[in-house]
What we know:
By secondary structure, the protein is mostly beta strands.
Amino acid sequence: MAEVDTSVEWMCGVCRYVYMVQTGDPKSNIPVGTPFEDLPDDWVCPVCGVGKEKFFDV
Length: 58
């Protein structure tokens, strides 16, 4: 299994929520270690509800 790069974080361009691989998204049943690219297409920001297209890498 390939190692996941945990240094890349993704920030919501609307509310500034940061998705981190180290924490996943427990509210949406996204496990720790899930890269942003592997999130389901219908995943939304747990804070403001916008889609992945509004996120940028930081």
